[in-house]
Amino acid sequence: MKPSPAPAVVDSEYLTPAVQRVAARIEARLRAAGVKLTLGGEPTYVPEKPEGAEWQFVAVGPTKLRYAYALAKALVADELPGAVTIFSPGKSYPGEVNPRWVVNLLWNRNGRPILPARAEKNPTQSASGLKALDALARTLARALRLSPRAWLQAREQGARVATARVLPIDYDIDTGRWRTGRWRIPGPARASLPLIPAEGPAGLRLPLGLLPPDALRRALTLERTADGAIHLFLPPLLATPWSELLDICVAALQRCDITEFRLEGYVPADDTGRWCRLGLTADPGVLEVNLPPCETWTDYARWLIQLERAGAKAGLRSFKEIPADAASDEPPAQAGTGGGNHLLFGGPSTDENPFFSRPAWVASLLRFFQAHPCLAYFFTGHYVGASSQAPRPDESARDMFDLDFAYRHLASLPAPTADGWDHRVIIGETLRHLHVDVSGNTHRSEISFDKFWHPGGPSGATAGLIEFRAIESLPRADWMALVALLWQAIAAFTLEHSSPAALVIHGRRLHDAFFLPTPLWADLEAVLGKLARGGLRIPSEGFRAIWAWRFPRLLRAELSEKEFDGVLEIRRGCEGWPLLAETPAEGGATSRFVDTSLERLEFAWFGNNSNNPRAANAKPPRIFVNGRELRLETAGKRPGEFFCGLRYRRTALYPSLHPGIAPHLPLEVALMGSTGKQSAPRIIFQLAAGRKQFERVSTLAHALAPAEPCLKANPTHLTYDLRLTRKRA
Questions:
Q1: pTM of the entire structure?
Q2: DSSP string, 277-341
Q3: For residue range 105-123, what is the model confidence (pLDDT) as tens digits?
Q4: Final residue of a domain: which of 497, 524, 546?
Q5: Residue 513 included in any domain
Q6: Which of the listed residues 253, 273, 293 is the one where a domain comes to its end?
């Protein structure tokens, strides 16, 4: 079953017919080259009011599972009729008491409903309680051709009533039949099984450690929870017997007239090609959606739009609203969820993976991304750089020689042989050690290969996936789909046009100019220009809208004075916050904090010669920030355009670098004519603490100090640093 058609893909403001024609052209080129490229995604969502640690920095909490089920219910009702929802245990992480969870949605590829439509009933009339539990157990035993006496009772420790039923079970591959066995538990526990006192379903809390070594370790578990719902936990099995058991369980629930139930358990990898799966995963601060691999960009775009619709019904969205200061009348500002929107390239299967036999394509793709920093900084959060969640390979303390040598080696590999042998191992082992963060973490990388091919790695390490992590969730589904189209266009372009062999040495510009909105837009225009010359012209309007949202404007002032005439804009830029040393934390542990005290702004001036002939060559006014002059640079595109960057200290939270430097707020911007003859500035703007916009004020708080201009850490930089003074330079 594929998602239902979504006309909104066609009607969307930015997914225009022109955009969709480009998508069709890309897919036609990939097919012509014999490439089956799939797109996977991991968009993230938060509630309209994300309150509590679970929506800030921890993975699980009291409300996240409820939101996951609400989203699953909306998807099943509107997009996936006949799909089944299964709660599954997730990964365990160091420092977390319980494993995370995943709410899986499964549906058959052939369109046959896994869960037939239910008749409309009053929930209070459906079978429930312990009698219903026992009736279901008997029905399941008959369907499995096992004795009903094989069921065991299980109870919470200290409880009088057993609220769970446990059937030891396994599948005999040789006979194609189900079998059971006796669980002999020594001591007083023989009468009933004592469930381990912990959070989670009964199926995860069975006392398996008390069983003898030769006992079955799999069990089908039925549980009646305190709210009266019946839970059915499926054990881990291979795909074929698991599918059979799922069908048996669904049929038994129907025969017992049980309409209020919850399926739980382990979902195996689908090696039968029977079903599709979508996962709703608990992740720090967000609910992450793991999309099924999409064969076309159109399918991917439809999924995002369907998620946006279903999320609205469930009270979820793909952005956060940051409220203004309590004393401010400013509207809330928007930001990404903080959980990312990673995009994954792969193939329909490992046998059809398009990258394994094309190492030169992989190298060309990576060189293209390395040449254009906008692809690392434009579509992610404001926190970028070496200690971020998605550092570029050339900023992770790696020698450029090794990176360049690796890409050249991959490009030189011969074509695979006809016997099916390919280059998956050498690609994975070559790139796995280079696409990492500064600590060697293969997952935290702009382009991650930890799911590509590493047979000795964790689960999923041989999926043949290239994961692009420098992509943030955006407030509109069509924006996120447009970003995916750009990535797919780059993939098609680099397949046909090899990127330059030599890597680009960005030097200081990488963490200077490319942290500013104007150079990033210019770099993206260069990317779009390359694609257009290759016959893949993507309209830029949607990207311009993303740029305006991504780099919020703090001030736009249209000024017409005797000495200057034009527009002054101040926008927020990117910042590379540093990772600090280990700091003692509660409980005797240590933690490493990120110093978020700095913020980077871009000042841009757009002169207007025609409006005011007296304004000399549309030069920008003299700009003073906190009394120190800030000199704008020529933008280089058109006369009358100037810009520069400014780093300033917004906060001084503990711990942080350079704690002796106080915050620079309120930040004051004063303007005066370029001739310098005025005795006082003409116009003054101020950014107060807790506010997100500059306001015009009438009083100058900082005395002008022409002898103490703003300074740069390096003369070649475009960005000034307000922390630098003559004494500290």
A1: 0.93
A2: EEEEEEETTEEEEEPPPBSSHHHHHHHHHHHHHHHHHHTEESSEEEPPPTT--PPPEEE--SS--
A3: 999 999 899 887 654 343 3
A4: 546
A5: yes
A6: 273
